[in-house]
Amino acid sequence: xxxxxxxxxxxxxxxxxxxxxxxxxxxxxxxxxxxxxxxxxxxxxxxxxxxxxxxxxxxxxxxxxxxxxxxxxxxxxxxxxxxxxxxxxxxxxxxxxxxxxxxxxxxxxxxxxxxxxxxxxxxxxxxxxxxxxxxxxxxxxxxxxxxxxxxxxxxxxxxxxxxxxxxxxxxxxxxxxxxxxxxxxxxxxxxxxxxxxxxxxxxxxxxxxxxxxxxxxxxxxxxxxxxxxxxxxxxxx
Length: 237
Known about the structure:
Blueprint: E1 3-8, E2 11-17, E3 22-26, E4 33-34, E5 45-50, E6 53-58, E7 66-67, E8 70-71, E9 74-76, E10 82-85, E11 88-93, H1 95-100, H2 120-130, H3 134-139, E12 151-155, E13 164-166, E14 171-176, E15 180-187, E16 190-197, E17 206-207, E18 210-211, E19 217-218, E20 223-227, E21 230-236
């Protein structure tokens, strides 16, 4: 399991396991990782963990979140990355992800228009970040006979309306890099939608016109999903 090692002036203070989907970081005591320093905002940043991959996102903090000397807004963490928040350092440790890199399925991206180009940098970052997560679920039996029935997506808007995508992978990403991204995970109890990147606007991905929060949203037959302005139907069985 991935973890964060919190240090101050080079000395470790505490370790935190990333054992939940959302972990918040900040000066307020209610944060999962409490950093008591005036240079740290009340709720400074959050870490989103999808199975074996983690992303850190700055939450409009006053002094910013710094990785490799640069302020970031959202960043896909790799084993050994050191995040600077105020005078504290958070080191991301995930040796399992590093060892397994390259052994997992690539993700799929549904774009509003098949002719619309996505930069190689954006696509590469997405695939590197969340294209390597099948092994953990497969070893736990998530894709076995006890798993959910077959399902697929059908595009309901845009020039590709009517196109279908079978949800055969453990994780399928939908949306557009740099705009808005969600992921559909196939779990023993069914299919769930997780928001990976809500984008810069005020609206989050929706299911049946209801915004999806920070927790995984279970999907049922004939649900209508909207991500990055594209509507698609979810059909099971």
